[in-house]
Amino acid sequence: MNTTATAASEQFHGGNAPLPLRLAQRAFAALAEARRGPTGAFRLAQLRSAARRTLSALSADDHAHLQRWLGLQLASGGAQAADALRLFARVDAALAAQIGAALVRTREELFPAGTGTAA
Question: The pTM is what?
Answer without folding.
Answer: 0.77
